[in-house]
Write a structure and sequence with these properties.
196 residues; 64% strand; 6-stranded mixed beta sheet; mainly beta
Length: 196
């Protein structure tokens, strides 16, 4: 038995419907014409569903110094924001930037056809800027995407203890706590004794 979850006028909510007769097409998106029977109230009625084909946006997935080109399929008219995670056939991705012509907005609609910059969302390489006296050391270290960081927290980086002083998200916002996947840069200082 083929079923569809659609709105029922009698039940006044979305319910499962048995498809009694149908004609479908996927030529220009998805279209359905047919007769369905509500499995909640037994009402039989004709119905028609039309969904437009998803938009294919250009996708750039960053992985350290490499960038992979790809396609992101999204529905028409939806907002896309820097910092949000989205499903992708190879796993969840985090949107790190949007590009429309020469502009870099923090939010755009799919119909604006932005280039979507992203990184994989299972693990994240966090960039640390560690101040050590007069010099600043830059180090990248991989964490699970859900690892949480907060200002004042002590963290071991390459065997040395450092204290987090500042956290910047993708897009530049400075925050007190964040997950690894959201972070663009963490600024630290070495513990009291400094680097050995």
């Amino acid at each position: 038995m083929e079923e569809l979850w659609i709105f029922c006028e009698i039940c006044n909510e979305e319910c499962p419907h048995e498809v009694l007769k149908s004609r479908t097409s996927t030529r220009k998106g998805f279209s359905f014409q047919g007769v369905v029977k509500c499995l909640e109230c037994d009402t039989t009625s004709p119905t028609e569903i039309k969904e437009s084909r998803p938009i294919e946006l250009r996708l750039r997935i960053s992985n350290d110094n490499e960038t992979q080109k790809g396609i992101l399929h999204v529905d028409r008219g939806i907002p896309i924001k820097v910092g949000e995670t989205r499903p992708h056939p190879e796993g969840m991705i985090l949107v790190t930037g949007l590009e429309i012509e020469s502009k870099r907005p923090n939010e755009a609609y799919s119909d604006d056809n932005p280039i979507v910059w992203a990184k994989r969302a299972t693990h994240a390489k966090v960039r640390f800027a560690i101040h050590d006296g007069e010099s600043t050391i830059s180090i990248k270290q991989e964490f699970e995407s859900t690892a949480e960081f907060r200002i004042g927290m002590k963290i071991r980086i390459e065997g040395e203890v450092a204290i987090i002083k500042n956290i910047n998200l993708h897009g530049g916002k400075s925050v007190k706590t964040a997950y690894a996947i959201e972070i663009s840069r963490v600024t630290c200082v070495y513990g009291r004794k400094g680097r050995r």
